[in-house]
Amino acid sequence: MTSVYLVSGERDEKGYPIVEKIALKGESKVPVGGRLKNGYLVGITRDGILLYDEDHPRPDKPQDPKEVNIAFWGGHTSPIVALFLNKEEAIECLNSSGLQNCDSRWRKQTEETLKAIGENHPVFILSKYSPISFE
After folding, report:
1. Residue 7 in 3-state DSSP?
2. What is the sign, positive or negative, of the torsion defined by CA atoms of 63, 110, 113, 25?
3. Which residues pair with 126 in a beta bridge?
4. pLDDT tens string 66-99
């Protein structure tokens, strides 16, 4: 893990959800203050957070990001270590050593965040094909 992103359901002037890098350890192509672009939905997968558009919109439920042709994917992050509702905890995680994808040290915070998002959020889509898992 080298970055912390602030992810918001609010949208910018182009209508994109706000996914902004707020902290960085080491080097990255996306600087602090940089935003992910090119997508109207925020996919949350074990492989990372990504903006995307649906290639076959459905009226009942948005497409899972892993169901969508990658041509409809926008910006994305590296794999997820943990999800947080609290910025300070996210920075503490960033500064920890030995981080791994879906790091069990932050299981509680990640599960709380996923619960807060819920199954039917209009912007954040939790992937059923690449779910956040601590197994």
Report:
1. strand
2. negative
3. 44
4. 999 999 999 999 999 999 999 999 999 999 999 9
- The per-residue pLDDT for range 23-51, each reduced to its tens digit, is 999 888 899 999 999 999 999 999 999 99
Q: Following DSSP, what letter does each residue of 72-88 receive, concatenated?
A: GEEEE-S--S---S-HH
Q: Report the alpha-carbon distance of residue 1 to residue 90 in Å, rounded.
A: 11
Report the predicted TM-score, pTM, of the whole model to 2 decimal places.
0.91
Nearest in space to 9 (alpha carbons), one of 54, 34, 41: 41
Please report, for residues 9, 26, 32, 118, the alpha-carbon distance to residue 112 in angstroms, rounded to integers and kept in the order given.
Answer: 17, 28, 26, 10
What is the distance of C-alpha 68 from the center of its chain?
16
